[in-house]
## 1
Amino acid sequence: MTETPKYTVMRKDGDIELRQYPSYIQAEVEIEESSYRGAIFKGFRILADYIFGSNQRNRNIAMTSPVQVSEGQKIAMTKPVTVSGEGTYSVAFIMPSDYVLATLPEPKNSAISFSEIKPKTMAVIGFTGFYRKKKVDKAERRLTQWLENENIPIEGAFIAAGYNPPWVPWIVARNEVLVEIKLR
């Protein structure tokens, strides 16, 4: 069974949940690509190579889910987010929970960076179907509207998360849109 991040559901309203996540480590790569789907495939390939042994120890690392994708922000060139603005996407894998930063093998590909994500509260909406930008945008709009109605402020960028490999039938494919929030 593929490991997924642990979380606690704090509140549920239909297909929207407020969740508390503990800290975790993610491997991330920034992709410049005009196509959302193209960015996912490029980023996935780079990160999959790493976990399938393209690292300094030639060690396989267990696959986890979801694959996370967020659009780049126009900011200065700093790590872990080295983005140039529009047409840039961050693609990330969450590392298995039995690793800490010091025990992860160093990647051979210098485009891969690691971040320790601190505990946070996320608003999440799920959807099924193919992992397409149009569906992600629709889920973002629905989640944003719900958060505005509940007077819950957004703290960060939206993240699209896909849990299934591409051969899973679209009707049962599990996807989510997440955003960090600040509860009052």
## 2
Amino acid sequence: MLSNLSLRNFDAWSGAKETKEAIIKNGKTEEFNSLMSELYPNGLTETEINDLLRFEKDWIFEILNIETE
């Protein structure tokens, strides 16, 4: 389990890469890290983080107020 998540240091794969890059590009890295720490205080596995980024993209963008094209 990863508890002190840092999105910048997370090596995303598959469809999660695009979500990660969008969060970083929009300057929402710290907000994402804080959100994950708040929602998952016991941490997440790398696969769980990747799955969140990949399959919950719309929810993440909505919470972080990231505009989608």
## 3
Amino acid sequence: MSPEQTVNAFIAAVERGDLEGALSHLSPDCEYDNVPMSKAIGTEEIRGVLAMFVSPDQKTEFEIVRQAASGDLVMNERIDRLQIGDKHVELAVAGVFEVRDGRIVLWRDYFDLATLTGQMA
């Protein structure tokens, strides 16, 4: 699988609510840098973050607006639609993924924290 295919497969698993499937595309020491909030290092920490919005019961959508790939780097502009608890959230996100040996080693998302907190209120 190419780096872009790996990222696409990861996103598809998230959208299906398949937490284990999503985690299978991450390296064991993957860094998830949720830029305006915090970092999670390793699949167990990332599992804790993803479990907030990735499950078969919750509707999650990562609408890819634009995506570019070069070598091991994949960047996308997305509209993320998530359910967090009883709140439905929509965020414009810029994502950066680095893939090595078929697994995501870095996942960095940039978004406006005020947009998130405003929708969570």
